[in-house]
Structure to design on (1519 residues):
């Protein structure tokens, strides 16, 4: 059943491309229905499958001569992220309700992207995973280049090339692993179980991890992300920050770390205080946290603030992964969900609610508009999303960051101060942006915008409500997710990471 | 034991009120105010019911509720109150209606304002009742948000900066505290205050934390100290202790006065409550190690804040510094209790006195400061926003009743015997003096300075020649008098019969001090 | 001295004979019946006849028996060779179909004749196991192609292309012939197997080295590997579309295959080794250098091209570089990967030329700039173009990706742990990331840029749409279900025992 999330998305995309031009307006409905159905499927699977262990979905031989199969499986981690994809998918459509230009193609590419994302999260065969991972690249390009803003073609090309370079690194590692393991199978289980020589893992791990990391916004390969997010149309920003960056993080966890656990062990010597690749990536994660937050603090463009905040939050995920203990890694997974929801929401506010109405994202230009009085809903939504994003308790970000920090205490106590500074900077940039965009100059007469701002539409309200509710659910009942994530982390797949116990 | 979930109900009532208000909108401002007030009174009634049922002689927590929440993190929903919690609940329930009444003249976005006030109340109630760090911290942090917006949206001209400063300072402290607590969690796998306190009492807590962290940069003692300082920072900012206080004067003075009442009356107690509930039981050893610097901080807080109040001309700023000063006494008392006495029975008795004094002072300061700020609010309403020390003069002629009642409140703040302010300070000084003589003696300077600036206020505002424009300043209305009378009455009542509160908290205070003796 | 049995020869060469006869028939029919008809009708008629002939040849190939070598090792008729011949014929058919709507020449029958003769040359070429036959069939192929390149007499570019192609081709033939003569002198035989026996057991003599280098130079020209690629951009750009498509696809298939055969069979034992630690001269180091230069130069120069055809030419250089990696490891798997790669590459390239055939007839040139907004002027063709280019870039699930995957896997699998191969693969993958940039640049124009204000929809002939659509479908299918031909290739390679 779960496999239909992929098929239905692709079928929806096909249907949209075939839709007659005079019925273009139906595209929204088709897209909404498609995403709703896939979301329903993901939700049902999530509810039905409460043990979190590996759930076989489809297994068909594909290229028998190479041992490649079409295998889809889902464990707790994938199910969690599938659910996230479903939510973001639906909300993305809701926040794109105002797209008029080439609408069929827009939603066509959109569904293509969603389908491929589902595919990545479901793939158990690494070849298949890579195929879906690459399919993601192309719709991204067009979505940004055609419907974007602010240097869109540059941003789209940059994004695609970064992604492609990342996936090239992944491909090298995968092919090497496949060949070293005897060219018999690309199945994740088989490869993760194969004892690769330590020196091989030592170079394959950083290669593959950094390859996936590029898409996860790993500092210093993050530069595609802010420009890409800013240039992208709202729904695409939501998808990019919401789920596509998670693909990278998911790949880091699911592929790089399970295949090459020894790659994280000590080098046996120290360079500049780094004793292993794990140290290197943990520090890069922290640098990402700080860098993203501090750069977000000085941005003039509203959307850039959110774009850089994504780097910061993704830094938490990478750091969480590198803690190599159950709580840190499950925190990283929860953070994937949390950041997915919140980044989606923040981009929706900035891109759809504010920018599409005021046609500016310059904080200095927004502040005289008194947006908290003109579009109070946007202000309230942003406040809630911002609070959640900066890790206010009760929302998803808090639980996630809390778990990651516990993990960090366990593995890298020395980094804790920097993480703390990152959290504080997170508070600062969110409030600064909020203040400047929505709450400045309450005592002066509001400057009338050049044209009346249209009111917030129902789809926007609905989308915002869904995302906020989801974030609150994750924040108050993380147990729902931890119940399936923990068994997944305890499965044989992650044996190499556990080293006999978390 | 399945009983009626009193505490959860008490937490939820304001939330429901806030939702009702938001749903209602600002169409009928008068009705909105009355609905808000009704909800806060409902909370007061509930609190009084708790007060009534509370058994002051029982050990441990009462009205406990326990529900599994996030088993994976061992985070439970556990609430309960002891004497301290109950006292704080009572204070909150009294201060919130005062704050609402003082905000009666708010005109903009009324329903949002009162909804935020009610949300703040819910967070306060949650903070004072939670017994598990996880959800305690949720309330602790969430409380900032309504406060922030109350300051920012309805505050004075510099409110944006003040609100931001308030938020960032508090957040820095909170995050430091959170970090420390997560380290503790990592070692103990529990967030439960009681369990943590037990571990700490048996001396196992810090060794466990230190060994789990394996932080080889520092010695074990230093690691423990770092953890302690994180938590300490969180509360010290909130109280605030000098030098972490700089957010407070601007926040108090820029906030609308109704909000200032909430901030000083109830929210400032969050920090003290945290010291009593968390820092004392968990970090007794660490506090003893750095007791001298801590005492210096307390003395500095008492003296410098009083001195700073002398230099102010804005009434709200004066009483903002006065707040710092009063809470400084509490800090002095708390630090004094920590002092290692080797089980000396006489000194232990002094500890009981100091602890009781701290409790009393917390309640009294909340009551008095709220009342004083309310008077300022009324003065502001009459003067059209003016509240400078030099703007007035001779008001006793124009509004004698006002002057009389505010004078009582001011004397209470000054610590005049017979009024509520006296007894708390007296107990603190009495208890602390034998324990930490030099610090207590130095703090007495603070008492002196307080007397000076409060008398200065009385003199410059109410005495002297009456300004031309203030001749027709209306005196208190009947409604105002009626609402003020219970408060003034309470001041007298507590001043004359402190047993009213001591009876409830004494047992808790003694327990708390006794638990410290083991160190 | 063995006597050649002409009956046997005839029996063996049936498919080639069929194609040759068809070629003659086309000329005859055109001269006799279609003289007055329009060019279009003449194209249709001639192509129809040619198609029938090719189909018949394929049928004959599929049904004819398999013989390892015949005529004392001059020709092979292994399943592998049959497969290659079928592939060549199929590509010819597609090329012919693409040509149906062209109007570039009045010499319709000559065009078809030359295509068919070139096909015959290719068919012999892939079957040849003897230096002499190899050279002759290569020349048959090359000469036909020279003329095909210059067939558009109205266009000076076409003539220039033909002349360049001819000069470079002639020179390469001379190099090759010189090398062959050295080989003959070395081994006293023109047979590949004998050549290999002669090389085995001898240390690498300077003569052999010269022979290797000249052979590589000769084939380097044919497969347009850098630095022997100078003819390619001009020919790709100047030649009429069907000719260019044919040069880019069919002739590549045949050349790559026979190059591989020659190297692996003929120069067996002279591979050498290119690793730093134990360098040993031979043809592998030479090809490693050529591969690296091709990959880097092809991709980097392609970035700055403004003409789609020239871009294709440089990307062809780059692809030649990738494919040469298969030579470096020369295992069965890498041969399979090479064949799969060249097949999918040919399909995609043909497809691009098919799209170009339509657009050029309306736009008038192949500048990438002028493709702006094509997605709204010709949506279907644009989608197909996207498929082809992304396949060339190696984006899954298109066949180009699987081909690359297969190729790199086979290369690494040949000797896992070899640092050199690993670095080659890394370079190749990195370079394919570069290639995405310029392919996307084209697609950006097509999809993102707005069409010029006066631009109208481009009508495309139904036949072109069908052919291009089928090619796109093939590219997708081969990517999604690579087993369609992969098992076939692996099987015939096994059966042929190469």
């Amino acid at each position: 059943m779960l496999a239909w999330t992929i098929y239905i998305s692709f079928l929806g995309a096909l249907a949209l491309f075939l839709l007659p031009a005079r019925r273009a307006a139906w595209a929204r409905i088709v897209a909404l229905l498609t995403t709703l159905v896939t979301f329903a499927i993901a939700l049902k699977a999530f509810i039905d499958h409460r043990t979190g262990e590996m759930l076989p979905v489809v297994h068909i031989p594909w290229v028998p001569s190479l041992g490649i199969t079409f295998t889809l499986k889902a464990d707790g981690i994938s199910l969690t992220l599938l659910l996230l994809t479903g939510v973001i998918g639906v909300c993305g459509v809701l926040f794109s309700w105002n797209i008029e230009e080439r609408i069929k193609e827009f939603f066509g590419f959109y569904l293509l992207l969603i389908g491929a994302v589902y595919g990545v999260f479901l793939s158990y065969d690494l070849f298949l995973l890579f195929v879906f991972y690459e399919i993601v690249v192309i719709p991204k390009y067009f979505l940004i280049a055609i419907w974007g803003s602010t240097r869109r073609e540059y941003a789209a090309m940059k994004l695609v090339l970064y992604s492609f370079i990342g996936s090239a690194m992944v491909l090298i590692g995968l092919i090497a692993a496949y060949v070293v393991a005897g060219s018999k199978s690309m199945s994740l289980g088989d490869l993760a179980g194969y004892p690769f020589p330590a020196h091989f893992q030592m170079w394959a791990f950083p290669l593959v991890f950094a390859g996936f990391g590029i898409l996860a916004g790993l500092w210093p390969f993050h530069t595609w992300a802010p420009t890409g997010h800013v240039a992208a149309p709202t729904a695409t920003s939501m998808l990019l920050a919401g789920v596509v960056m998670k693909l990278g993080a998911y790949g880091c966890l699911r592929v790089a770390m399970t295949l090459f656990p020894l790659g994280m062990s000590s080098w046996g010597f120290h360079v500049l205080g780094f004793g292993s690749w794990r140290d290197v990536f943990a520090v890069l994660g922290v640098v990402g946290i700080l860098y993203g937050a501090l750069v977000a603090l000085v941005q003039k463009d509203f959307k850039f603030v959110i774009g850089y905040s994504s780097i910061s939050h993704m830094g938490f995920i990478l750091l969480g992964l590198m803690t190599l203990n159950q709580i840190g890694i499950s925190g990283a997974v929860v953070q994937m969900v949390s950041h997915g929801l919140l980044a989606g929401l923040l981009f929706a506010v900035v891109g759809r609610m504010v920018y599409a109405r005021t046609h500016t994202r310059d904080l200095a230009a927004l502040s005289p508009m008194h947006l908290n009085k003109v579009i109070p809903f946007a202000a309230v939504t942003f406040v809630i999303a911002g609070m959640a994003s900066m890790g206010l308790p009760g929302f998803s970000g808090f639980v996630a960051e809390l778990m990651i920090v516990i993990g960090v205490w366990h593995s890298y106590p020395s980094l804790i101060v920097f993480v703390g500074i990152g959290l504080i900077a997170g508070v600062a940039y969110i409030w600064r942006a909020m203040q400047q965009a929505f709450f400045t100059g309450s005592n002066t007469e509001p400057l009338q915008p050049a044209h009346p701002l249209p009111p917030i539409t129902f789809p926007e309200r609905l989308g915002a409500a869904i995302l906020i509710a989801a974030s609150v659910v994750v924040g108050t009942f993380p147990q729902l997710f931890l119940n399936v994530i923990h068994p997944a982390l305890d499965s044989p797949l992650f044996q190499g990471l556990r080293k006999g116990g978390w | 034991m399945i009983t009626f979930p009193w505490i959860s109900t008490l937490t939820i009532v304001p939330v429901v009120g806030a939702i009702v208000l938001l749903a209602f909108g600002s169409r009928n401002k008068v009705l909105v105010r009355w609905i808000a007030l009704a909800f806060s009174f409902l909370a007061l009634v509930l609190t009084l019911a708790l007060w009534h049922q509370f058994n002051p002689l029982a050990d441990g927590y009462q009205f406990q509720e326990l529900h599994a929440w996030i088993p994976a993190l061992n985070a439970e929903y556990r609430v309960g109150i002891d004497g301290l919690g109950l006292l704080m609940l009572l204070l909150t329930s009294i201060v919130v209606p005062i704050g609402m009444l003082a905000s009666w003249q708010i005109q903009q976005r009324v329903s949002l304002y009162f909804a935020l006030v009610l949300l703040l109340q819910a967070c306060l109630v949650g903070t004072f009742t939670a017994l598990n760090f996880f959800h305690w911290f949720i309330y602790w942090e969430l409380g900032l948000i309504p406060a922030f917006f109350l300051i920012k949206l309805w505050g004075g001209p510099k409110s944006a900066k003040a609100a931001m400063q308030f938020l960032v300072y508090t957040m820095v402290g909170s995050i430091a505290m959170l970090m420390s607590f997560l380290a503790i969690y990592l070692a103990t796998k529990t967030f439960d205050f009681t369990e943590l306190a037990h571990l700490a009492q048996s001396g196992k807590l810090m060794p466990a934390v230190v060994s789990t962290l394996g932080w080889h940069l520092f010695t074990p003692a230093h690691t423990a100290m770092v953890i302690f300082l994180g938590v300490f920072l969180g509360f010290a900012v909130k109280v605030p202790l000098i030098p972490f206080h700089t957010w407070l004067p601007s926040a108090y003075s820029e906030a609308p006065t109704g909000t200032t009442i909430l901030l000083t009356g109830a929210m400032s107690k969050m920090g003290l409550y945290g010291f009593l509930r968390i820092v004392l039981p968990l970090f007794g050893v660490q506090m003893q190690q750095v007791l001298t610097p801590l005492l210096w901080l307390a003395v500095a807080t008492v003296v410098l804040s009083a001195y700073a109040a002398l230099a102010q001309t804005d009434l709200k700023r004066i009483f903002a510094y006065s707040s710092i000063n009063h809470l400084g006494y509490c800090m002095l008392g708390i630090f004094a209790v920590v002092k290692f006495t080797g089980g000396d029975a006489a000194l232990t008795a002094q500890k009981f006195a100091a602890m009781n004094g701290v409790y009393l002072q917390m309640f009294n300061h909340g009551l008095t400061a709220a009342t004083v700020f309310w008077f300022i609010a009324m003065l502001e309403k009459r003067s059209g926003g003016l509240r400078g020390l030099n703007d007035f003069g001779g008001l006793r002629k124009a509004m004698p009743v006002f002057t009389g009642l505010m004078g009582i409140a001011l004397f209470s703040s000054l610590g005049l015997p017979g009024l509520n302010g006296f007894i708390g300070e007296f107990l603190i000084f009495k208890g602390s003096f034998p324990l930490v003589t030099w610090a207590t003696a130095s703090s007495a300077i603070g008492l002196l300075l307080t007397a000076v600036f409060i008398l200065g206020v009385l003199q410059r505002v109410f005495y002297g020649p009456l300004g031309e424009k203030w001749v027709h300043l209306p005196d208190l209305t009947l409604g105002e008098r009626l609402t003020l009378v219970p408060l003034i009455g309470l001041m007298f009542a507590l001043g004359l019969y402190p047993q009213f509160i001591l009876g409830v908290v004494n047992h808790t205070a003694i327990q708390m001090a006794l638990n410290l003796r083991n160190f | 001295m063995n006597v050649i049995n002409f009956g046997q020869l005839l029996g063996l060469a049936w498919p080639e004979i069929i194609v040759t006869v068809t070629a003659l028939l086309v000329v005859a029919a055109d001269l006799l019946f279609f003289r007055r008809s329009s060019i279009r009708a003449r194209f249709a008629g001639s192509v129809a006849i040619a198609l029938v002939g090719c189909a018949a040849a394929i049928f004959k190939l599929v049904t004819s028996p398999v013989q390892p070598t015949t005529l004392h090792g001059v020709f092979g008729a292994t399943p592998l060779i049959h497969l290659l011949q079928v592939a060549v014929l199929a590509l010819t058919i597609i090329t012919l179909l693409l040509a149906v709507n062209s109007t570039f020449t009045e010499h319709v029958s000559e065009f078809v004749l030359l295509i068919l003769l070139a096909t015959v040359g290719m068919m012999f070429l892939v079957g040849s196991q003897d230096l002499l036959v190899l050279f002759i069939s290569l020349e048959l192929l090359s000469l036909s192609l020279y003329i095909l390149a210059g067939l558009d007499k109205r266009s000076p570019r076409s003539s220039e292309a033909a002349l360049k192609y001819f000069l470079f081709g002639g020179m390469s033939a001379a190099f090759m012939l010189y090398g062959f003569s050295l080989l003959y002198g070395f081994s006293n035989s023109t047979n590949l197997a004998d050549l290999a026996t002669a090389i085995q057991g001898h240390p690498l003599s300077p003569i052999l080295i010269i022979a290797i280098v000249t052979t590589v130079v000769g084939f380097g020209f044919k497969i347009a590997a850098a630095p022997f690629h100078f003819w390619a951009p001009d020919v790709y750009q100047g030649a009429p579309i069907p000719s260019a498509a044919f040069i880019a696809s069919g002739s590549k298939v045949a050349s790559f295959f026979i190059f591989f055969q020659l190297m692996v069979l003929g120069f067996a034992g002279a591979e050498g080794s290119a690793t730093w630690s134990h360098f040993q001269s031979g043809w592998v180091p030479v090809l490693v250098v050529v591969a690296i230069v091709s990959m880097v130069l092809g991709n980097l120069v392609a970035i700055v091209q403004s003409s789609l055809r020239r871009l294709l030419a440089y990307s062809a250089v780059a692809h030649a570089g990738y494919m040469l990696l298969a030579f470096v490891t020369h295992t069965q798997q890498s041969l399979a990967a090479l064949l799969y790669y060249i097949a999918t590459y040919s399909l995609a390239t043909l497809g691009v030329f098919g799209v170009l055939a339509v657009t050029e007839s309306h736009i008038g040139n192949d500048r990438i700039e002028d493709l702006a907004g094509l997605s709204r002027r010709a949506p279907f063709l644009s989608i197909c173009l996207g498929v082809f280019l992304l396949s060339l870039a190696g984006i899954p699930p298109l066949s180009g990706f699987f081909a690359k995957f297969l190729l790199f896997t086979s290369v690494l699998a040949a000797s896992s742990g070899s640092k050199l191969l690993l670095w080659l693969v890394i370079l190749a993958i990195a370079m394919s990331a570069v290639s995405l940039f310029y392919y996307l640049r084209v697609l950006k124009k097509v999809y993102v840029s707005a069409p010029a204000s006066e631009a109208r929809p481009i009508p495309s002939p139904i036949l072109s749409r069908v052919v291009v659509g089928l090619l796109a479908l093939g590219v997708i299918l081969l990517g999604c279900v690579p087993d369609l031909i992969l098992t076939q290739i692996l099987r015939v390679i096994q059966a042929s025992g190469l």
